[in-house]
Known about the structure:
Helices cover 26% and strands 28% of the residues. By secondary structure, it is α+β, with helices and mostly antiparallel strands.
Amino acid sequence: MSQISDSTFAIGIDLGTTNCALASASxxxxxxxxxxxxxxxxxxxxxxxxxELLPSFLYLPSPEELPAGSLELPWxxxxxxxxxxxxxxxxxxxxxxxxxxxxxxxSYAGVDRNxxxxxxxxxxxxxxxxxxDAAVRYLSHLLGAWDEQHPEAPLEEQELVLTVPASFDxxxxxxxxxxxxxxxxxxxxxxxEEPQAAxxxxxxxxxxxxxxxxxxxxxILVCDIGGGTTDLSLIQVRESGGTLELERVxxxxxxxxxxxxxxLALAYTVKARLEREGTRIDDWQMRALTYGCxxxxxxxxxxAELAEHPLVIAGRSSRLIGGTIRTSLPRAELEAxxxxxxxxxxxxxxxxxxxxxxGLTTLGLPYASDAAITRHLAAFLGRRSLPRPSEHAxxxxxxxxxxxxxxxxxxIRDRICSILGQWAQADGVPPPRxxxxxxxxxxxxxxxxxYAHVRRKGGIRIRGGTARTYYVGVERAGLAVPGIPPQVDAxxxxxxxxxxxxxxxxxxxxxxxxxELASFRFFSSSERRDDEVGAIASPADLNxxxxxxxxxxxxxxxxxxxRLRARVTELGQLELAAVEATTGERWKLSxxxxxx
Length: 596
């Protein structure tokens, strides 16, 4: 990476499900002071404006839909698609041409994430892009906006950190890093877990006072509820050499549950009310109503003085006066839907409810079947693998840091704190105290920029290692039985928390087929923290990652006797190598598990 004296920046990029953001800190300053970067984007046809958030939406208009030059940007004069605010608002009325939730699709192994599948279920003739391509377009937009304002300090030459959910598996991380490279970002770019970035932002906001607010033995719950996902992490405060140290000790599963679900729930509530009053809402109007409820939700959660927010829906019948349907979203209705539907008061023993499935279903993202975020929180804190006093059934955090746009609401924050307090009281421990001082919408990009700065200049770091335990599938040798596939064991190759720069060798030898196409199965678990290298687990107890298919060099069909070695490189890449004992010949498979 090029060095640019006093004008070099530490850059943090939040590639969010609902919004993207970028923050920077000058490396000329010894103490980082990350500031959000206003991102130029199209807000109306032919009109641009710089805003701190770039909505993570891509709109693909028809060739005749907009006048020439309507989507022009300084770095993209012939733009034929829109990213950002205009894309989101235009797509509310034409959802068949709107790409959304691309980040969630990146994490879904049930589809080919390099295939042109978005917008999902779009009719024939509508152009489509892959989840990776959508991420490339968002990152390319950020790169173009930055370079337009900083021609002397191109983004690709800066100290860069890109954030990912802590719950992203190795394949999703690699796809994200690959999208960054396709967008023109450098190979030296680092990935950082979003909850860690949020905590870095809190540290940055407190200065040296952060050490006065936490102490050795504290466990911080980072509760990140964004537009599309809920991400939970635990970070412990420890002591090393007389100084405080932070270590990420647990991450939750990837839960597709967030503000988008809330918008839809509000829309259904308003629709039911309108239909009781005799006003019918069709599917097309329902999309507009959902968008209106999102705007109303953000306005009401952002201003405690508002009692209600108006909703206007374009009419579909000439019998409607003025051609529109007018109603409102009252605060009482908003809070009832959100609190009782998404944050109900539950006991610590409750778990997410799995509803009975219908035999046939449309294909799409694997959204959470239970919308109660508090039940998912109880399940996370109730994992047996988490550190806890032996007499408690729950791992009780001593502090909580909120992140994500949904947690901007004091009503929601208070509800979560109240429930955590009830669980703590039941076990006779103090309730967690909230950590204040971060902007939920911008904390991730600010924290990523802070981390980029301390990587270059030094400062507090959060220790983590791999966020999951990783396994490789090994087929058992045995007699062939008609109709019964060979049994596959999952062999631990990288335990939870394996640090960068470390290498391990598995204790026994295996057979490796070379010279022909073979499929390598990989698995992971965020709950099995105690499995050591070489431990065997049942694949049924793990999450299977996308397989890697490869033809390894060698004589066709030869079975080589090898030992497996796993190494986490300094760049955060997990390397799995098979080394033949007699010749030393080495075969390698890699995928990225950057988790700093």
